[in-house]
Structures are given as C-alpha cells and as structure tokens.
Design a protein that fits this description.
With about 200 residues, this protein is α+β, with helices and mostly antiparallel strands. About 15% of the residues lie in helices and about 45% in strands.
C-alpha cells in the first residue's frame, strides 16, 4: 500500500489506498490497472543523473524543515489535520502526526520536523521545486521531463486514460522513497508532484 493525501470537493480526505487507486491521483480519472504493472514500471533505474535530491520549495524551503521556516515563506496554513497512530513520511508509526495545507502545498509534521508531501500546481501555480540542475514547476513540460528523466519516462506508469495523463516515478537518492510526477498530455505541463514511500 502507498500513503497518499487526496482532495475531494468538500475538503481534504486522508487515507490509505492501494496503489491501483492512487497512482494517477484523486483529481484525475486515470487509474493503474494492476499493482504488478505499477511496481514494474515504477522500478528504480540505477542512474544517479535521474535522482531528485537537494531540492528546495520556492528555492527557500528544504523538503525537511521546521514549521517556522514554512510559515515564514508560505504564511499561515489554510487548514491542519491531526491524526493518531499514523505512518509518517519516513515510514514510522507515531502517536500524533499533523498535516498542514497551504493552497495545494501539503506538509506533514512529525514531532518537530515538517516534511513536504505534495504540490498541486493547479492550486498553487506559482510554487516550484528548485534543484541544482533544474526547476520543477507548473511550466515544466513533458519535453523537460523527458530531458531530465529519460529512464523514468521510458518506464512510465501504465494504466487507463494514459492518453490523457502521464505519471512517472523518480527515486530519491539514498532512500526507497520516490517523487511521483503527474503531467497533463493536453497541456503538456506538470500538474502535481507527490512524495511516496512504497511499503
């Protein structure tokens, strides 16, 4: 199973979902056919050029930071949600975890650490992730992704409605975690990026 935060029309819903439901995401009609297919296509390719690491949100916020740093850059959260006995982004069960939502940008607070979980560029079009080599934003195109992550694109996740949406998984160096990138084939633009740790 994979941990994802999904948004419904009435607000924010948290849950655990099978990868078959969540790989394309709650806001798009696409879905992956089978768990086996998903894992096969999400395999980690041993190419260090395709890792995503050393990134900062809006060029200022590290993916793991503290609440003060996040609020200084993004302002006060739109909402928060505390859940008990949940699994954190690092895969550890903890008594209380709080989720912070900033107009499509989502963080998890586990003890004193804030961890970036997701950016929905449709809700926060000015947001971006800066790395030493490139920037990921609402202006990132399919051509950009093919240039940055050719192996991941070759192993694109397969499923229904993939003529409308593209989903690729890029590993985070030194961990089993991945960044999942979701692109709209019609606009050819990146619309969401999510941090996911497969079990």
């Amino acid at each position: 199973m994979i941990k994802m935060i999904c948004y419904d029309r009435h607000g924010i819903t948290y849950g655990w979902f099978l990868i078959i439901v969540t790989l394309i995401g709650c806001n798009s009609p696409g879905s992956v056919k089978t768990v086996a297919d998903s894992l096969k296509h999400a395999k980690i390719v041993p190419d260090t050029a395709e890792y995503i690491d050393d990134i900062k949100l809006n060029g200022a916020i590290r993916v793991k930071t503290d609440l003060k740093s996040v609020v200084t850059e993004l302002g006060q959260p739109d909402s928060t949600l505390m859940l008990s006995d949940q699994k954190s982004a690092d895969g550890q069960f903890n008594k209380n975890i709080t989720y912070y939502y900033f107009k499509g940008i989502e963080f998890e607070k586990d003890r004193d650490t804030m961890a970036l979980l997701q950016i929905d560029f449709r809700r926060s079009p000015g947001a971006y992730l800066q790395t030493p080599r490139f920037k990921l934003s609402s202006n990132t195109t399919i051509s950009d992704v093919e240039k940055y992550f050719p192996n991941a694109v070759d192993n694109e996740l397969r499923g229904t409605d993939m003529d409308l949406y593209m989903a690729i998984a890029v590993p985070i160096k030194g961990t089993k975690a991945m960044w999942f990138l979701y692109l709209d084939r019609k606009t050819e633009k990146l619309y969401r990026i999510s941090y996911i740790v497969p079990d």
